[in-house]
Amino acid sequence: MTVGQLDSSIVKITNSANKSEPLPNDKLNFGKTFTDHMLTVEWTAEFGWAVPEIKPYGKLEIDPSCCVLHYAFELFEGLKAYRTSDDKITIFRPDMNMKRMNKSAARIALPTFDSEELISLIGKLIEQDKHLVPEGQGYSLYIRPTMIGTTDGLGVAVPDKAMIFVILSPVGPYYKTGFKAVRLEATDYATRAWPGGCGDKKLGANYAPCVVPQLQAANRGYQQNLWLFGEEKYITEVGTMNVFFVFKNTETGKKELVTAPLDGTILEGVTRDSVLTLARARLSPEEWDVNERYFSILEVEERAAKGELVEAFGSGTAAVVSPIKEIGWRGKDIQVPLLPGEQFGELTKRVSEWIADIQYGREEFKDWVRVVADVK
Amino acid sequence: MTVGQLDSSIVKITNSANKSEPLPNDKLNFGKTFTDHMLTVEWTAEFGWAVPEIKPYGKLEIDPSCCVLHYAFELFEGLKAYRTSDDKITIFRPDMNMKRMNKSAARIALPTFDSEELISLIGKLIEQDKHLVPEGQGYSLYIRPTMIGTTDGLGVAVPDKAMIFVILSPVGPYYKTGFKAVRLEATDYATRAWPGGCGDKKLGANYAPCVVPQLQAANRGYQQNLWLFGEEKYITEVGTMNVFFVFKNTETGKKELVTAPLDGTILEGVTRDSVLTLARARLSPEEWDVNERYFSILEVEERAAKGELVEAFGSGTAAVVSPIKEIGWRGKDIQVPLLPGEQFGELTKRVSEWIADIQYGREEFKDWVRVVADVK
Asked: Which pLDDT score, from 0 to 100, does residue A1 have?
C-alpha cells in the first residue's frame, strides 16, 4: 500500500457548536485567545499522513510516556494572516515558513510534507474562522503550525508517529502605542546556539533554555538578550528576532545595513529575508551596502564611540521590526541613536512601512502574498 | 496565604479498577509497558505545589497552546527500583536523581521542590504497584519522574503552571543475553552540547537533536554516537551514557580509569558517580589512577596503537555498564580489547558486579539504597 501524502482535498471538517464573537481590538493579547477551530493531521511511519481534520479547538490527549513530553520532539512556525482594505484575508510568504518547517522536521527525524498542501489546509482553517481576523493596521491573525512526535514509550528513538496541528490567535500590534524601542543585554555567559547544533531550526529545544538568561536580563532592566557567540563576541540574534545594525562610515559617508550570516546558528527569519530583499531592491547602492557578515559587539561598541552607529532594529513575525535604543554590555549601555523625539531610527521606520504596505495590501506584491479567504 | 510546598503526607490515592498481572520476564521491553498507577502533582506560581495524586495510569489532557508542546519546557529523570533477595523493594541513590532534577528544573525556570518529599511519593506509588516489580538479576522497575511546564498561551515566558508526573515501567536487562559489547561512532560533525548551554541537565531539549546523528551512525553499523567536542576532539559522553576508558602505561605498568570532567557539557550521571566512588575506594592506588580529565579521541587512537588501551565502557541507569568493543573514527575502527572469548573487559565486569551486588541487596550499602516497600 502507498504511504499517504498530506492531502488537503480530503480534509474532514467538523463545525464547532459555538461561533465566537470577535473580541474588541483592545482586548487582543498575543497568543492568549484562539479561534473556534483547529487543524490536526496524524502521521504514522506505516501509513503516512492520515485524513486532515478541521474541528473544534480543544485539548489533546497525550500519553504520559509520549516522546514529545520527554525528548522534545516538537517544532513550530509562526506566520500571520491580514485583513486587507478590500476585505480579503491574505497570508504573508507562507512558502518560506513551510520550507523552514520541513527543515526543522527533518532535523529531528519527524516527517516532512508537501508545503502547498499545508498552506491550502491553513487557508481552509482560516476560511472557517475568518470572521475572527481582526481589522486595522497592526492587527492580524497569528497562525501557529506545530509538529510533535507522538510515539508512546521511553526509548530514545526516531518517532514512528507524529502530528501536525495548527491553531489561530487574533493579535494586536506588538507595541500597543506604536513603536517602543527596546533595551537588549548583550549576553556572553550563556550560549543560545552553536555550530553542529540546531539553532537555525524552529525547534522547541531552542526556547526553554533561553528563559532564565532572559529573566536575568529583565531583572537588570533589559527586555531581551542579544546573544553573542564565541571569543570574538559575534552578534547572532535575539532569540525571538533576528537583528540588524546600521553603520555610517564617517570617512566615505557610506551607510551599511548589516545582519549576521546564516551559518547554522541563526534562525532563517522570514522577516529577516524580507528586510534584506527590500533593502537590496530599494536602497541606493551608491549610498548603501547591505551585508550579511560576522560583526561583534566590540565593533558595535567601537563604532558607537566613533559616532558611526546610526540605528538598530530586530526583525520577526510578531513585531515585524522592533527598534533598539540601548545595548547593555559589560556593565555599560551602548546608546543606539533614535530620531529626535521618536522611538525609532529612519531606516527602521521605512522598512516597517515597506513591509506593512505589502502585508495590508496597499502595495501589490504577488509573490509574497496569498489570498486565502474573502470576508465581503 | 503560604505558597504550598510539595507534601507527601497529603497525597490523595485513587485505586485503579484493574490490577494487572505481571508480564513474564521475557516479555519486558524497556519503557513500553507501564504499571497501573501514576503520580501527578500540579504547581502554580500563585499557590505552589497542590495535593499530590496517585491515580490510574492514563492520558494527560493538554491544550494545543501549552508551553510544553512549543518551547520544550520539559525535563526528566531515570532511576530504578529493585526487588532484593529478601523481598524488599529498594531504590538506588534517589537523592542524586532528585538533586539533578531540581537543577534541571531551575535551568529552565520550572519550580523546584523538596527532594525527600518526591522520594517519599515515589515510594508510595511503588507500594501501590509493588507486585509488578520483576524478580531476578537484571530485572527492575524503571522509574520516570518528569516535569513539564503547563502554561497555556504562545508567549515565550517563565511558566506560571507546571506538573510533575511519575510513571513506572517493569524492565529486563538492557542486553537480554548478558553483556553485548557495542560499537560507537566518534562524532564531530554534530555537537551535542556547548559551554553556556544545558548539556549537563536532563532536559528534553538535549535529546531530539541527537536522533538524526544516531540514525546516521546506525546506518553505518554503530549503536550510538560518541560525542566529541571542539578542535581538540575531546571525548564527552554517549548521550544516553557517560563513558570510561582504561589505559595502561607500558613504561610504568600503571593503569588509569578515566572519564570526562563535569564541565557543564556532560550529564552528571548517577552511575558515573557510583563507578568513580567505588573505583576510588576499591582499586589499589599503587596500581590505578582514577581520573576525571579531558582526553581526546586522538589520545585513544594513539594509545590503542601503542597497545595501551585496555578497555572501555559506558555507564548509565538503563544498562548500568555497557562494554565497548569498537570506535569508528575517520573511516577506521579503533579496536577496544575484550577478555578472550568474552563481551567485556576485566574492570567492566568487576564494576558491573560491584554495583549489582549493592542494587540487589547482596551487599549492604545503606547510603545508596532506600527500602520503599516490602513484598513478603
From this structure: 47
Element (H, E) at B302: helix B297-305
A240/B72 Cβ within 8 A: no
Dump pLDDT digits (tens) for A303-324.
Answer: 999 999 999 999 999 889 999 9
Chain A segment 154-193 residues within 8 A of B by beta carbon are 154-158, 165, 167, 169, 188-191
pLDDT tens for A247-271 read 999 999 999 999 999 999 999 999 9
pLDDT in tens, B227-276: 999 999 999 999 889 999 999 999 999 999 999 999 999 999 999 999 99
CB contact (8 A) between residue A212 and residue B30: no
Residues of chain A with CATH 3.20.10.10: 182-344
- Which residue bears the cell 510513571? B167
Q: How far apart are CA A110 and CA A64, in angstroms?
A: 20
pLDDT for residue A239: 86
Cβ neighbours of A167 in B, within 8 Å: 64-65
* Range(s) within chain A of domains with CATH label 3.30.470.10: 12-172+362-374
Interface test with A, best of B70, B169, B171 (most A CBs within 10 A): B70
B135: how many CB neighbours lie within 10 A of its CB? Answer: 14
Helix and strand numbers, DSSP H then E, in chain A:
7, 20
- Quote the strand ranges of B192-302, DSSP E: 224-229, 234-237, 242-248, 255-259, 288-292
CATH 3.20.10.10 for the A182-344 domain, yes or no = yes
Residues 215-254 of A with CB under 8 A from B: 215, 239-240
Which of the four CATH numbers 3.30.450.20, 3.30.420.180, 3.30.470.10, 3.40.50.720 does domain B12-172+362-374 have?
A: 3.30.470.10
Considering only residues 43 to 62 of chain A, which have any Cβ-Cβ distance to chain B shorter than 8 Å? 57, 59-62
CB spacing of B204 vs A109 below 8 angstroms: no
DSSP code, position A249: -
Cα–Cα distance measured from residue B46 to residue B128, given in angstroms and rounded to the nearest whole number: 31
